[in-house]
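Z., the sequence and structure:
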Amino acid sequence: MAAKKGTWIGGTLFAAAVIGAATWFGAVHPTLSDAAALRAQTDDVNRSNQTLQTKVTQLAADFQKLPQYKQQLEALRIQVPTTAQLSDYVRQVQQIATAHTVVVTSFAPSTPQAVVVTRAAAPAATPTPSPTASASPSASATADPATPASTAASAAAASGVPAGMAAIPVSITVVGTYDNTLAFLNDLQTGIPRVMLVSGFTGTSQKDAAASGGKPATHVGDQELVVTGFLYVLPDPTAATPAPSPTAPVLPAPAPGKNPLVPVAGK
């Protein structure tokens, strides 16, 4: 009787262990795995929400400063306008010339050119000779993978130059006393809001001469100053493209052999 009782107890314990294992692997463990995955997804969503909230907060702060940013943009567009505006610049040059009692005898702009910042090429590495090198034609040095054929757009992007930025070469010639021409040159760079990069200047001393050919009368000690440099233009990428003008109607061609100037007889 005791043996049977022990058998029943052992069988009951074994069945309980089997049921417990089945419950664990069939219900409890998957549920715990799903819960862990759900917690991980919740953490990811919370981190994403925090990142988005930070961006929203930053955008809201930037929006509050929008009027200030617009004022800064307008100030920058005075220095680098969206169009050439050469007539306005010539007027400002004439004003500082008058202020310093010099005469502008020439203002010569040239064709605009794209602004590209060139970078100095890195020196090529000296190849290390191989102890087993052969003198046969098949043994050649490895070509440098860097190629100089880079487009202006890629060079501009790499150097941080905005796309579409152009430089207008200009040459300005003035005549006046030595001190006055130097004062004019100083105000040309600092007295006009628009940016001009002076790339060079040449001064030529003058002699006593009467006015001729648009050049004023000169005296010993006067100077003719030729200033070369660049004005910059950055088109507005948000500006609307002007709509094309409507095509004018085309009149029908007269019939061959018929005079179109002959009046039509009325009824």
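The radius of gyration is 41 Å. Confidence is low (pLDDT under 50) at residues 132-157.

Let me know what you think.
H.
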